[in-house]
Amino acid sequence: RHSMEKVTQTQVAVAAAAAAGVAAWWYFSQGKPKGPQKVAILDAGAQYGKLIDRRVRELNVESEVVPLDTPPSKLKGNYGAIIISGGPGSCYAADAPAFDPAVLEMGIPVLGVCYGYQLLNHVCGGKVEKAEKREDRQEAIQVESSSTLYHGLGKTQTVLLTHGDSVTKLAPGFAATGWAGGGHVVALENAEKRLYGVQFHPEVDLTEHGIAMVKNFLFRVARLGGSYTPKSRHQAALDEIREAVGSKDILVLVSGGVDSSVCAALCREAIGPARVHAIHVDHGFMRLHESDTVKVALGKVGIDLHVVNCTSDFARAGTTTQKGKKIGPLIEAIAPEDKRMIIGDTFMTVTEAAVASLKLDPNNVYLAQGTLRPDLIESGSHLASSKADVIKTHHNDTALVRKLRDEGKIVEPLKDYHKDEVRALGKGLGLPKHLVWRQPFPGPGLAIRVLCSDGTRPETLTAAEVSKVRALIAKASDMPLSFTVLPVRTVGVQGDCRSYKAAIALSLPGTTDVAKVDWPGLFAIARQIPSEVPNVSRTCFMFGDPVEQGAPGSEDVTATVCSQPVVDQLRQADHVVSTVMLKHNLHHELSQVPVVLFPASFGVKGNRSVALRPFITRDFMTGTPAVPGKDVPFAALREWVKGVQDVEGISKVVYDLTAKPPGTTEWE
Predict the structure, then answer these.
(1) CA–CA dist 98, 122 (Å, integer)
(2) Catalytic residue among 114, 263, 540, 562
(3) pTM for the full model?
């Protein structure tokens, strides 16, 4: 999985196809495939919908994402297969997204994924009901290996299940082909009509052989040819920039991360350096020495970066929500979405001032951003999905940005890309290796890695839920584990919807060395708790002396805002982690390592605590926590913990054990 990030985009596609089996043409010998060769992906609002599109393209089949309510007349004759995506709704609800059942009677092969699976069964006369408990985790399921969908695969498959509804009665003519724990059905098919459905997500990395299932559907069921060769994405991005801006100039906001750096390099190549004006906004929430490093690095590839220090502007900034509510200033903001909106909108107002300072004509300038597909999906942008739920507002997809986009004043050449694809493009553009492989860093910077609080403990779990967590831990492990509910809430993604729920911290006697911890056992508990107690979206391991729920100080909270002293405290902890990563050469192995400051003091007045979130992903839509001793050397982990504990004012250090889903990569 990790090695795929180090190869070109073409190699990624080839490797993906090879991993699924032999080439598509091997499947049939009777000449050129007939009929439409394009796949329609009916969008029901999935967080992973665009990943389906990507997986299909990687198998050299053309695809197009279209609305769920697309009429049969627009599908028949134009598409050779249909995939219905997942989504946050219930197919039996009064407000369920519109869908024409006649789509299933056209004779076109259909694969329903998650919501699409439930919709397929519901429309065809089966029954779908709310499940006793929702699932947001990897799970081993049993499949009917004689099914065409699972050709060449074993009977046991590890898949990602994210659902709150379940099929309780099969539609007439359908047979079950997949079963989860307890025997409940998670896959079905009507082979005669070529209608297939899976409750899990074959498009994500967490479904280990998902691409093989997609390939079986495309080539064995739909019998598509797999001969589509997309236009060079590099050339397509250049053409898009040139067509959009014409003879006008481009202003690029450069954070220093790979996304905005690749965007700047593309713009420079597309229209020449004289018409590209690159600005780096230092909002006061950058990593240690970040702005200076960015300027030097981009200067080496011919990009003259203007650095604008706006620390005080951001601290004082406020904004107005879409509902007309005034929020801010940022220095007093507590809610994570408020902080994101203020920072995103202030980026835009700062840009306007920068245009004026450079004596650029605002009517003759386009704004270029390195917005990626996952940013748009998590922000609920219609460019990614017409029905996706908002998980978190990205600074480059706020209401103001959408307004500028609607006015045609923004160029986003990477909006159909995922992180690994951007890295491949950056490498092709000749960007320095250290810039291409920089750890992802959010545009709002450290501001959204500080969990703010007014000093009061938020409502998290009920006494009954706490008792259930305690019983689950006791049953799941023989380790002498203590646990406590952290006095914070964190953002998650559960069932394609945003969640803002509790976090649990497990701990062992303080003398336990990291090499002697049963990490597989801890990860198993972390997978189970959110499934059994849905109001928990994140589980961590706490280093040092154990902390038991209800113990003195366990619920103490320090008032915290994004002031410079607070941000400096996080900046020091972040620098410790970054330095250790460089020492142990972990930048290629770990996709992202957010360092989060949260306001739990654990009885030490004025103190806070730090969460480490080492994360592994290829698609940046799903992923797994890095495993100590496997992905993170024990020596590096010890250095992380010791170094962060030595930062003044830090009480505890925790290690995030949570996969995505149910927890997002960031805590906010």
Answers:
(1) 13
(2) 114
(3) 0.79
- pLDDT for 641-665, tens place per residue? 999 999 999 999 999 999 998 888 9
Please choose, from the candidates 170, 73, 76, 61, the residue with its C-alpha nearest in 3D space to the C-alpha of residue 117: 170
Task: Say whether 418 is catalytic.
Answer: no
| Both tokens assigned to 331 | 């220095």
The 10s digit of each residue's pLDDT in 582-639 is 999 998 889 999 999 999 999 999 999 999 999 998 777 788 999 999 999 999 999 9
Q: How far apart are the first and last CA of the chain?
A: 26
What is the C-alpha to C-alpha distance for residues 70 and 201, in angstroms, rounded to an integer? Answer: 22
Report which of 457, 260, 279 is spatially closest to residue 356, judged by C-alpha positions. 279
3-state secondary structure of 164: strand
Distance CA 591, CA 418 (A): 13
Residue 114 among the catalytic residues:
yes
Dihedral sign for Cα atoms in the order 340, 343, 345, 348: negative
CA-nearest of 638, 571, 87, 501 to 287 is: 571
Coil vs helix vs strand at 363: helix
Of 549, 529, 563, which is closest to residue 463 (Cα–Cα)?
Answer: 549
Would you call 201 a catalytic residue per the annotation?
yes
Pick the catalytic residue: 58, 135, 189, 203?
A: 203
Is residue 147 within 8 A of residue 164, CB to CB? The reply is no
Sign of CA dihedral 265, 269, 273, 274: negative
Residues 450-485 have pLDDT tens digits of 999 999 999 999 999 999 999 999 999 999 999 999
- Most distant CA atoms of the chain, gap in Å: 76
